[in-house]
Amino acid sequence: MVPSKSVAKPVAKKPATKAPATKPAAKKPVAKKPAAKSVAPTAASSAAVDAYFAAQKPSDRALLDRLRAIVLKALPDAQPALKWGAPFYLVNGKNITSMAAFKEHVSINFFAPPEVLIDPTGRLEGEGKGNRALKVRAVADIDPVAITRWLKAAVAANG
């Protein structure tokens, strides 16, 4: 007689069971941020803007200083603030313009819909609904009359 080998019986796999359906956790209410307050001009915000200008290379600083003089003449009540690392000027708490120095130019942005920024010579650049920029590479690129017109249009659009 041949001894019988014990043969392992295949184990039947249990059918996969789904985890019981659970309700997604209720979302906790998120506290909304309070509305932005009007930024009052402070010595700190003005000093921060001054420090930004002072940190620029001399050629850029000269262009930025000329642009700032135009902004302050056109908008004497504008409030300076340093936002996102660049000088902004606000009127009634709304962004009107900003300036920044880049590798090969300085830029002044006008925060207004493009249809109110009259630009017959096509000097303003940008796309989108809310702003346009003037790239300034030399003093000759600065047109005080046009810049003043664009600043006043931005104030009117943000009023």
Q: Averaged pLDDT, please?
A: 83
Return the CATH architecture of the domain at 58-157: Alpha-Beta Complex
Element order: H for helix, E for strand: HHEEEEEH
Distance between the termini: 106 Å
The share of residues in extended strands comes to 15-25%
Strand order of the largest sheet: 1-2-3-4-5
Poorly predicted parts: 32-40
Number of helical regions: 3
Description:
By secondary structure, the chain is α+β, with helices and mostly antiparallel strands. It has a domain at 58-157: Aspartate Aminotransferase, domain 1 (Alpha-Beta Complex), CATH 3.90.1150. Helix content is 27%, strand content 18%. It contains three helices and five strands. The chain has a five-stranded antiparallel β-sheet. A hairpin with a 2-residue loop joins strand 1 (79-83) and strand 2. Helix 2 (58-74) packs across helix 3 (144-157). The chain starts with 42 loop residues before the first helix and ends with a helix. The model is unreliable at 32-40 (pLDDT under 50).
List key phrases describing it.
18% strand; alpha+beta; 27% helix; 159 residues; five-stranded antiparallel sheet; Aspartate Aminotransferase, domain 1
Compile the SSE list and pairings.
Elements: H1 43-54, H2 58-74, E1 79-83, E2 86-91, E3 94-101, E4 106-110, E5 132-136, H3 144-157
Antiparallel strand pairs: 1-2, 2-3, 3-4, 4-5
Helix pairs in contact: 2-3
